[in-house]
């Protein structure tokens, strides 16, 4: 794949990810998914250190440095690749909580559009291009998805959220979000939150938000190393106790995730 001559007309994109030592193998998988993105003007990947302690953070920094060297070598070997000049920007360990890490990372981004990617989820090749195109068509400053898919690796089942619009008009989890940089002029996450930080970032989900196509956005991974366990959600759904999700039957998971990538992710999440 070569660089598109229309690249100079495209808005610059920053991808932002919070990662940690225990999920470095997930981060390597995300690196491969980023290289498959069809959007040609991803200028940087901002990785925020989110390990639980400084010792782990320092070890993970060594891992990120190795990844950076690998990326640089690959870029030198194939300078015409559309993602050869993505800059990896690493923010070292600070000990901050999740919402503060998100603010720290967002403020570091230089792209006109910021696309959020968690290290452990699957993102299709059109994740970035779909988000950018959707934002381009609207006056909304932020995009997201509420009816996302979840694949439970232990149970081997795929689920789909029906959305939470009966409670919130505009809802999305962070891993589905993308936003124009000007959104940050008047919005940030509340300080000191360990989870559920999205509400403060969106004024309790009241900010106008363009809806992304879930199949072009994400398949969330449910596994043993989730910072917020999704397994109970999946189990309750299978037992008919969760009205917000339903099982997706009749299609293999490889209909949604290419077989080679799925096997790689399955190996990561089932080796524990």
Q: Your description of this structure?
A:
The protein is of the alpha/beta class and 272 residues long. It has one domain (5-270): Alpha-Beta Complex (Spore Coat Polysaccharide Biosynthesis Protein SpsA, Chain A), CATH 3.90.550.10. Helix content is 31%, strand content 18%. It contains eight helices and eleven strands. It has helices at residues 24-35, 54-77, 98-108, 127-136, 198-201, 214-217, 231-238, 259-270; strands at residues 13-19, 42-49, 87-91, 113-116, 142-144, 149-152, 157-161, 178-180, 209-211, 219-222, 245-247. The strands form two sheets. A seven-stranded mixed sheet has the order 3-2-1-4-8-5-9, with helices on both faces. Helix 1 links the parallel strand 1 (13-19) and strand 2. The model has no long low-confidence stretch (mean pLDDT 92).
Sum this structure up briefly.
With 272 residues, the protein is of the alpha/beta class. Helices cover 31% and strands 18% of the residues.
Mind telling me the CATH superfamily name? Spore Coat Polysaccharide Biosynthesis Protein SpsA, Chain A
**Rg result:** 18 Å
Alpha carbon gap, first and last residue: 35 Å
Mean of all residue-level pLDDT scores = 92
Order of H and E elements: EHEHEHEHEEEEHEHEHEH
Main CATH class: Alpha Beta
Instruction: Compute the number of helices.
Output: 8
Itemize the secondary structure elements and their pairings.
Layout: E1 13-19, H1 24-35, E2 42-49, H2 54-77, E3 87-91, H3 98-108, E4 113-116, H4 127-136, E5 142-144, E6 149-152, E7 157-161, E8 178-180, H5 198-201, E9 209-211, H6 214-217, E10 219-222, H7 231-238, E11 245-247, H8 259-270
Parallel strand pairs: 1-2, 1-4, 2-3, 5-9, 6-10
Antiparallel strand pairs: 4-8, 5-8, 6-7, 7-11
